[in-house]
Design a protein that fits this description.
This protein is an alpha/beta fold. The protein folds into two domains: 2-135 and 266-314, Alpha-Beta Complex (Quinone Oxidoreductase, Chain A, domain 1); 137-262, NAD(P)-binding Rossmann-like Domain (Rossmann fold, 3-Layer(aba) Sandwich). Helices cover 24% and strands 28% of the residues. A hairpin with a 2-residue loop joins β4 and β5 (68-72). It is built from nine helices and 17 strands. The protein binds zinc ion (2 copies). Residues 78-79, 82, 84-85, 93, 95 line the site of one zinc ion.
C-alpha cells in the first residue's frame, strides 16, 4: 500500500509498505479519508516527545471494515485498569496510545485499529466531511463542555475545530466571538457566515466581556489575552496538545475567580456524545481535499493558515 511516513523530523515520505496485519482485537480499515489536524504538525515538527519511529500520522480516519463505515480517532488504546481509566477519565491514562503518534494512523491506504475504540459515523456526512468530526469535533466538544454554560463564548483560532464547535454553540443559543490572526478577513467572514456575533483579530478586545474562551491556536500569548477578554468567574480553556510558552502576566488577570485549564485527548464517551449530536444537528463541515501524496502540501497550507475549515487527505 501507499503510506506517508515520518522518519526523523520535517517532511513525510511517500512509501510503498506492506498492508498492516490486524492483531487480536484489531480490525483492518480501508481508509476512505483522513483529516489533517494541527497535532499532526506538532508530530512532524518534533514538538511531541517520542513518536513511534517511522510513524504514519493521521487520527481522523474514515474507513471501511467489511463494508461497514467506521471512524478511528486519536485515542487508540488505554490500559483499562488504572485509576484514571476506572473513573471515566481514560483520556488521562498514562499508558494510553494514540493514533498517528504511537500507533500508525490514516495517512495511508490501510490502517489497523482496536475495534473497541472505533466509532460508528452519522450517515448524513460524506467520507471527507465526516473526517474532521473525529478530532476537531470531538476535542472541540470536550472543550465546549469545559466552558460550562457560558453564554458569551470566544474562540481563539478559527480553524477546523472552531468552525464546527461555533455551530454547536450557536445551536445551543450561545453568542460566539471569533478571534483570528490579525488581518485574516477571510477567516473572520467565515466565522460570521457560521453565526458568530463578532469576529476580529486576537489582538482586539471583544465588544463585551466573555463568559468563557477556548484557545485552539498553539500560541501561549493568547492565554493572558483571553483572560483579559473574560469576565469575573470566566474560564479559559486551552484545547491544543501543544502551545508555545505562556508569558508571565499580572495576577489581577486571573483574580476574580477566573480559571485557566487544558483539555487533554478524548474519552470514548466524548466521541459517542458528540457523534450523536452531529447525527441530530446538520453541522456544515467545510473541507479542502488533497490527494494522499500531497500530505506535505496540506500540512504546509495548515501551518500557513491557508485552510478554510479542515484539510482532508483522500487516498
Ligand atoms: Zn489506564
Ligand atoms: Zn487532532
Amino acid at each position: 500500500m501507499r503510506a506517508m511516513v515520518l522518519s526523523g523530523r520535517g517532511a513525510l515520505q511517500l512509501r510503498e509498505v506492506p498492508v498492516p496485519r490486524p492483531a487480536a482485537g484489531q480490525v483492518l480499515v480501508r481508509v476512505r479519508a483522513c483529516g489533517v489536524c494541527r497535532t499532526d504538525l506538532h508530530v512532524v515538527d518534533g514538538e511531541l516527545p517520542h513518536p513511534k519511529p517511522e510513524v504514519v500520522p493521521g487520527h481522523e480516519i474514515v474507513g471501511e471494515v467489511d463494508g461497514r463505515r467506521v471512524g478511528v480517532p486519536w485515542l487508540g488504546w488505554t490500559c483499562g485498569v488504572c485509576a484514571f481509566c476506572k473513573s471515566g477519565r481514560e483520556n488521562l491514562c498514562a499508558l494510553a496510545r494514540f493514533t498517528g503518534y504511537q500507533l500508525d494512523g490514516g495517512y495511508a491506504e490501510y490502517a489497523v485499529a482496536d475495534e473497541r475504540y472505533c466509532f460508528a459515523l452519522p450517515e448524513r456526512y460524506g467520507d471527507a466531511e465526516a473526517a474532521p468530526l473525529l478530532c476537531a469535533g470531538l476535542i472541540g466538544h470536550r472543550a465546549l463542555r469545559m466552558a460550562g454554560d457560558a453564554r458569551r463564548i470566544g474562540f481563539y483560532g478559527f480553524g477546523a475545530a472552531a468552525h464546527l464547535i461555533a455551530q454547536v454553540a450557536v445551536l445551543e443559543g450561545r453568542e460566539v466571538y471569533a478571534f483570528t490572526r490579525a488581518g485574516d478577513a477571510q477567516a473572520q467572514q467565515f466565522a460570521r457566515d457560521l453565526g458568530a456575533r463578532w469576529a476580529g483579530s486576537s489582538l482586539e478586545a471583544p465588544p463585551e466581556l466573555l463568559d468563557a474562551a477556548i484557545i485552539f491556536a498553539p500560541v501561549g500569548a493568547l492565554v493572558p489575552a483571553a483572560l483579559k477578554a473574560v469576565d469575573k468567574g470566566g474560564v479559559v480553556v486551552c484545547a491544543g496538545i501543544h502551545m508555545s510558552d505562556i508569558p508571565s502576566f499580572p495576577y489581577r488577570l486571573l483574580w476574580g475567580e477566573r480559571v485557566v485549564r487544558s483539555v487533554a485527548n478524548l474519552t470514548r464517551r466524548d466521541g459517542e456524545e458528540f457523534l450523536a449530536l452531529a447525527a441530530r444537528s446538520p453541522l456544515h463541515t467545510r473541507v479542502q481535499q488533497f490527494p494522499l501524496e500531497q500530505a506535505n502540501e496540506a500540512l504546509a497550507a495548515l501551518r500557513e493558515g491557508r485552510i478554510t475549515g479542515a484539510a482532508v487527505l483522500v487516498p
